[in-house]
Amino acid sequence: MKVLYISLSIVIADQVSKLLVKGFSIPFLHIQYIGMYSGQRIPIIGNFFRLTFIENPGMAFGFNPGSNMKLWISLFSLFASIGLLIYLYFIRNKSLSLRIAIACILGGAVGNLIDRMFYGVFYNYAPLFYGRVVDFLDFDFFKFNLFGRSFDRWPIFNFADASVTIGVLILLFFYRSAKSEDQKTEELQAETNSSNKVESN
Q1: Phi, psi for residue 51 in degrees, rounded to 5
Q2: pLDDT in tens, 39-58
Q3: Where are the domains of the chain?
Protein backbone atom coordinates (compact mmCIF):
# COMPACT_ATOMS: atom_id res chain seq x y z
CA MET A 1 0.00 0.00 0.00
CA LYS A 2 3.04 2.28 -0.32
CA VAL A 3 1.51 3.63 -3.53
CA LEU A 4 -0.88 5.57 -1.28
CA TYR A 5 2.01 8.01 -0.84
CA ILE A 6 1.53 8.82 -4.51
CA SER A 7 -2.15 9.57 -3.88
CA LEU A 8 -1.30 11.69 -0.83
CA SER A 9 1.35 13.66 -2.75
CA ILE A 10 -1.14 14.36 -5.54
CA VAL A 11 -3.79 15.58 -3.09
CA ILE A 12 -1.30 17.87 -1.31
CA ALA A 13 0.11 19.32 -4.55
CA ASP A 14 -3.40 19.78 -5.95
CA GLN A 15 -4.78 21.53 -2.87
CA VAL A 16 -1.72 23.75 -2.34
CA SER A 17 -1.87 24.91 -5.97
CA LYS A 18 -5.61 25.62 -5.72
CA LEU A 19 -5.21 27.60 -2.50
CA LEU A 20 -2.42 29.65 -4.08
CA VAL A 21 -4.66 30.40 -7.07
CA LYS A 22 -7.86 31.09 -5.14
CA GLY A 23 -6.33 32.64 -2.04
CA PHE A 24 -7.09 31.86 1.59
CA SER A 25 -7.49 33.42 5.01
CA ILE A 26 -6.62 32.10 8.48
CA PRO A 27 -8.01 34.79 10.84
CA PHE A 28 -6.73 33.43 14.16
CA LEU A 29 -3.18 33.42 12.74
CA HIS A 30 -3.71 36.80 11.05
CA ILE A 31 -2.81 35.25 7.70
CA GLN A 32 -4.48 36.42 4.52
CA TYR A 33 -3.25 35.49 1.06
CA ILE A 34 -4.87 37.19 -1.92
CA GLY A 35 -4.92 34.86 -4.90
CA MET A 36 -6.12 35.48 -8.43
CA TYR A 37 -9.50 37.01 -9.19
CA SER A 38 -12.05 34.96 -11.13
CA GLY A 39 -11.29 35.06 -14.85
CA GLN A 40 -7.77 36.44 -14.40
CA ARG A 41 -5.18 35.25 -16.93
CA ILE A 42 -1.43 35.17 -16.35
CA PRO A 43 0.69 34.25 -19.43
CA ILE A 44 3.44 31.72 -18.65
CA ILE A 45 4.54 30.65 -22.16
CA GLY A 46 2.95 33.31 -24.32
CA ASN A 47 -0.57 32.36 -25.34
CA PHE A 48 0.21 28.62 -25.38
CA PHE A 49 0.27 28.14 -21.60
CA ARG A 50 -1.24 30.50 -19.08
CA LEU A 51 -2.84 30.42 -15.65
CA THR A 52 -6.55 31.18 -15.93
CA PHE A 53 -8.60 31.06 -12.76
CA ILE A 54 -12.12 29.68 -13.14
CA GLU A 55 -14.40 27.66 -10.87
CA ASN A 56 -16.10 24.67 -12.41
CA PRO A 57 -19.61 24.14 -10.97
CA GLY A 58 -20.15 20.79 -12.62
CA MET A 59 -18.15 17.99 -14.16
CA ALA A 60 -15.14 17.64 -16.44
CA PHE A 61 -14.68 19.99 -19.43
CA GLY A 62 -16.94 22.56 -17.77
CA PHE A 63 -20.07 20.47 -18.35
CA ASN A 64 -22.74 21.67 -15.90
CA PRO A 65 -25.63 19.21 -15.35
CA GLY A 66 -27.51 21.70 -13.15
CA SER A 67 -27.74 22.41 -9.42
CA ASN A 68 -30.16 19.51 -8.88
CA MET A 69 -27.39 17.05 -9.81
CA LYS A 70 -24.65 18.76 -7.80
CA LEU A 71 -25.21 16.74 -4.63
CA TRP A 72 -25.32 13.46 -6.56
CA ILE A 73 -22.07 14.27 -8.34
CA SER A 74 -20.38 15.00 -5.01
CA LEU A 75 -21.75 11.82 -3.42
CA PHE A 76 -20.71 9.75 -6.43
CA SER A 77 -17.19 11.21 -6.18
CA LEU A 78 -17.10 10.32 -2.47
CA PHE A 79 -18.20 6.70 -2.96
CA ALA A 80 -15.96 6.30 -6.01
CA SER A 81 -12.96 7.45 -3.95
CA ILE A 82 -13.82 4.97 -1.19
CA GLY A 83 -14.24 2.24 -3.81
CA LEU A 84 -10.83 3.02 -5.34
CA LEU A 85 -9.20 2.87 -1.90
CA ILE A 86 -10.76 -0.53 -1.20
CA TYR A 87 -9.79 -1.77 -4.66
CA LEU A 88 -6.22 -0.62 -4.10
CA TYR A 89 -6.10 -2.81 -0.99
CA PHE A 90 -7.32 -5.87 -2.90
CA ILE A 91 -4.72 -5.40 -5.66
CA ARG A 92 -1.84 -4.74 -3.24
CA ASN A 93 -0.01 -7.80 -4.60
CA LYS A 94 -0.74 -7.10 -8.27
CA SER A 95 1.55 -5.38 -10.78
CA LEU A 96 3.14 -2.07 -9.83
CA SER A 97 1.86 -0.29 -12.95
CA LEU A 98 -1.74 -1.16 -12.05
CA ARG A 99 -1.31 0.04 -8.47
CA ILE A 100 0.33 3.30 -9.60
CA ALA A 101 -2.49 3.92 -12.09
CA ILE A 102 -5.19 3.42 -9.45
CA ALA A 103 -3.22 5.54 -6.96
CA CYS A 104 -3.08 8.41 -9.50
CA ILE A 105 -6.81 8.17 -10.19
CA LEU A 106 -7.55 8.03 -6.45
CA GLY A 107 -5.38 11.08 -5.73
CA GLY A 108 -7.08 13.08 -8.47
CA ALA A 109 -10.55 12.01 -7.38
CA VAL A 110 -9.90 13.00 -3.76
CA GLY A 111 -8.34 16.31 -4.83
CA ASN A 112 -11.47 17.41 -6.67
CA LEU A 113 -13.73 15.84 -4.03
CA ILE A 114 -12.28 18.20 -1.40
CA ASP A 115 -13.33 21.17 -3.57
CA ARG A 116 -16.85 19.81 -4.07
CA MET A 117 -17.36 18.88 -0.43
CA PHE A 118 -15.70 21.69 1.50
CA TYR A 119 -14.89 24.75 -0.62
CA GLY A 120 -18.44 26.08 -0.48
CA VAL A 121 -18.25 26.01 3.33
CA PHE A 122 -14.62 27.22 3.57
CA TYR A 123 -15.26 30.17 1.29
CA ASN A 124 -18.80 30.78 2.56
CA TYR A 125 -20.70 30.59 -0.73
CA ALA A 126 -22.48 27.19 -0.61
CA PRO A 127 -23.39 24.36 1.82
CA LEU A 128 -21.47 21.11 2.22
CA PHE A 129 -21.19 19.06 -1.01
CA TYR A 130 -22.08 22.07 -3.20
CA GLY A 131 -18.63 23.57 -3.71
CA ARG A 132 -17.03 24.42 -7.05
CA VAL A 133 -13.81 22.89 -8.41
CA VAL A 134 -10.90 25.30 -8.91
CA ASP A 135 -9.32 25.07 -12.38
CA PHE A 136 -6.37 27.11 -13.64
CA LEU A 137 -4.12 25.21 -16.10
CA ASP A 138 -4.89 26.68 -19.52
CA PHE A 139 -3.25 25.24 -22.67
CA ASP A 140 -3.78 26.04 -26.34
CA PHE A 141 -3.46 22.55 -27.86
CA PHE A 142 -6.06 22.32 -30.63
CA LYS A 143 -9.68 23.05 -31.44
CA PHE A 144 -12.31 20.34 -30.96
CA ASN A 145 -16.00 19.70 -30.26
CA LEU A 146 -17.30 17.89 -27.16
CA PHE A 147 -20.75 17.58 -25.56
CA GLY A 148 -22.13 19.80 -28.32
CA ARG A 149 -19.69 22.58 -27.46
CA SER A 150 -16.86 23.98 -29.56
CA PHE A 151 -13.53 24.56 -27.79
CA ASP A 152 -10.87 26.92 -29.16
CA ARG A 153 -8.47 25.84 -26.42
CA TRP A 154 -8.13 22.77 -24.26
CA PRO A 155 -10.62 23.03 -21.35
CA ILE A 156 -9.01 24.57 -18.26
CA PHE A 157 -8.07 21.91 -15.72
CA ASN A 158 -6.09 21.30 -12.52
CA PHE A 159 -3.50 18.87 -11.16
CA ALA A 160 -6.21 16.48 -9.94
CA ASP A 161 -7.67 16.25 -13.46
CA ALA A 162 -4.19 15.67 -14.88
CA SER A 163 -3.56 12.92 -12.33
CA VAL A 164 -6.78 11.08 -13.25
CA THR A 165 -5.87 11.34 -16.95
CA ILE A 166 -2.35 10.01 -16.32
CA GLY A 167 -3.79 7.11 -14.29
CA VAL A 168 -6.20 6.18 -17.08
CA LEU A 169 -3.41 6.37 -19.70
CA ILE A 170 -1.22 4.08 -17.58
CA LEU A 171 -4.10 1.61 -17.41
CA LEU A 172 -4.56 1.73 -21.18
CA PHE A 173 -0.87 1.42 -22.08
CA PHE A 174 0.22 -1.06 -19.43
CA TYR A 175 -2.90 -3.22 -19.07
CA ARG A 176 -1.54 -6.05 -21.22
CA SER A 177 1.90 -6.07 -19.61
CA ALA A 178 0.32 -5.95 -16.15
CA LYS A 179 -1.99 -8.85 -17.01
CA SER A 180 0.93 -10.85 -18.38
CA GLU A 181 2.97 -10.10 -15.25
CA ASP A 182 0.13 -11.27 -13.02
CA GLN A 183 -0.23 -14.50 -15.02
CA LYS A 184 3.50 -15.22 -14.68
CA THR A 185 3.30 -14.61 -10.93
CA GLU A 186 0.33 -16.97 -10.60
CA GLU A 187 2.13 -19.66 -12.66
CA LEU A 188 5.25 -19.30 -10.54
CA GLN A 189 3.20 -19.64 -7.36
CA ALA A 190 1.45 -22.71 -8.75
CA GLU A 191 4.81 -24.31 -9.65
CA THR A 192 6.18 -23.53 -6.19
CA ASN A 193 3.12 -25.06 -4.51
CA SER A 194 3.29 -28.21 -6.64
CA SER A 195 7.03 -28.66 -5.97
CA ASN A 196 6.41 -28.25 -2.24
CA LYS A 197 3.74 -30.97 -2.38
CA VAL A 198 6.12 -33.32 -4.19
CA GLU A 199 8.85 -32.73 -1.61
CA SER A 200 6.46 -33.32 1.27
CA ASN A 201 5.37 -36.64 -0.27
Answers
A1: -90, 120
A2: 999 999 999 999 999 999 87
A3: 4-186
